[in-house]
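hi! just following up on the protien thing from before. the input was this:
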Amino acid sequence: MQFSHGFACLRRTGAIVLALGLAACAQQPVAPQASTHPPVMTQALQKQMTAEQALQLLKDGNARFTAGKPLNHDLAMQIKTTGNGQYPFASIVSCIDSRSSPSQVFDLGIGDAFEMRVAGNVVNPDILGSLEYGAKVAGAKLIVILGHTSCGAVKGACDHVELGNLTGLLAKIEPAVKATPNVGSPDRSSHNYPFVNAVAEKNVHLTVQDVLDQSPVLREMAAKNEVRIVGAMLDVKTGHVKFY
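and the predicted 3d structure came back as:
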């Protein structure tokens, strides 16, 4: 009887110690792991996150997207949690193409990323200002320029299309057209799909450089490793994103 009573006491003591330990752990902010997507982004998580971890979260999200296994995002909780403040870990400049929504392509939740969308995923002073705000003021650790295959804006630039305000936008893609060598054949029009995709990729690289050239704020932050700026290409046939 005494042995049984002692054993019971030990079990109760162990349970209490375990409970206290779990409570202490719950009070400590946990740095996000590369392979774990936080249920919602908080200030503590954003502050601890590195650019490499932010990039890995996007890679993991794209893997879930292509596998058809997205997270069960608790949108109601995310709305409630971010209602008084947002702490995105990334800023993403993507095309307006209906197949290239960053939230879907990277399986993101509310509060995860700033998204700037414009045909041809180019930058202008307004987008650069938005990126500067996202990184310098709001604390985003990663900037992604996301292009995609079969891009209509790139096709328009290849064909030298002129249409109202679109003319000026497509002119921003012209440097990529000129810098891309022939692919597959001498045909440098929208009918040559390999050439179009090569131009889209070149446009991503040039846009990353434009961000650095045209924004002293982001260039300084990148030099200090306060933000990382990368390019990426989405294959609209597979949903897979390749980073550069």
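Confidence is low (pLDDT under 50) at residues 1-34.
The CA atoms of residues 55 and 184 lie 33 Å apart.
cheers
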